[in-house]
Amino acid sequence: MAKVVNSWNDFDPLKHVIVGRADNCCIAPSEPASKAKVPLDSPMRGMTGPRPLDTVEKANAQLDNLVKILEKHGVKVDRPEPIQWNQAVVTPHFMTGSMFGCMPPRDVLLTIGSDIICAPMSFRSRFFEYLAYSKNLRTYFDQDPDFRWFFAPRPELGDASYDMHYYDGDITEDVLLERTAKLEMVTTEHEILFDAADVLRLGKDLFIQHGLTTNRKAMEWIRRMYPDFRIHAVNFPGDPYPIHIDATFVPLRPGLILNNPHRKLPADQRKIFEANGWEIVEAAMPAHKEPPALCYSSVWLSMNCLVLDHKTVLVEASEVHQLEQMDKLGMNVIPVPFRDAYPFGGGLHCATADVYREGKCEDYFPKQVADPTLVEFGKMRNG
User: Fold this and answer.
1) Digit-coded pLDDT (tens) for 91-148
2) Angle subtended by helix axes 216-225 and 372-381, to nearest 10
3) Active site residue 246
């Protein structure tokens, strides 16, 4: 039986991946967690229901084209099985009017070596999203004797999981910026909550963004599951809606990372990168001033790229500044039209989940420095 699942980072040669689908995708109802993802001035605030069929068709055309490009470069591609997302979710702890979709598998599935973890996401509308990938994971389990498939603790997502008064009063983006800089999020520490897309995998070190979708208790759970790994809690002041690290802090190859210039990694958190000779480069400015219609995400999906190997990267075709920067950084750049897919869950990285990359678990940070986040984990364990 062959080894099917293996991935320790986002830049070793990619050989097997899951690419999402836009079928049946919904604009999910407003809820305590997803409310935080919609900017205050967005026309999407309050919208819900199935997405227009013509937009679904356009998104699927670009997703299918991504599949063809990947296969042309020798990457095996699997797809999820969409279900009817326009169904209510009812549990003993909550109910919500519909689900979301399965375009962004990166949010749901966290691959660490031979393991794939189904994340305990904080959006009520995404409670059953893992079901779209069950057939894929069953196949890997049957084919690979080393593959471990498991779920993080399933969350309740009741009112205790959120600060239900987070949006009370006169809320502006300045207020939100102040709160997120203080690490005051809409999600509480009641239970373990994280999206897989908040975990940056760099071999023995996992850098996890503390934001609106991932809490500290999740980091402690991952630390206990992987005691031989070093867990780093990172945050990026300057983002009023800190959701997912892959449009903020993007590794291209060992020693090189792109950082969103509007969401810079704080100085004390940069020390471990500096001590080990990593270069942190400010990403090029987006080519667009606004996201596409009916899109939650920011214009910084421009830097949400998919690295195929240490020299090859897929970048959205209209993001001319990012294409140029990648070229100057020594990457072979493959432009991929993808803006029609953005509204369904994000960019090229979001729309994929690693199954197999060549390589093993490396230690990219042999020179350790004082890390206050690890000390804070110690405080958490001691109550």
Assistant:
1) 999 999 999 999 999 999 999 999 999 999 999 999 999 999 999 999 999 999 999 9
2) 90
3) no
